[in-house]
Amino acid sequence: MRVGICTLELFISNSNSLKSKRQVLNSLKDRIRRSFNVSIAEVDGNDLWQKAVVGFSCVGNEKGFVNAVMDKVIDFIEKTPTVDIIDYKIEIL
To answer: Which pTM does this prediction carry?
Structure first.
């Protein structure tokens, strides 16, 4: 069994309040859950307006499959116009 863990630092440029940040993040998290069947949550930066740290994980039987899913999720987030990726880190256990 392989477990993939990714931590992403995100910048939300159009956010001018915590409420607008939550709307963007909740929408993004819901779309990712539906599309890729991964677990995702905001893990840091909860009280910042334009910055969020999001973590997601994937479980599979092969390293290649887990890595492919992680890459697809990152590509999906990069194509989202309201969010920019500042940095990310992937670990596969």
So the answer is: 0.90
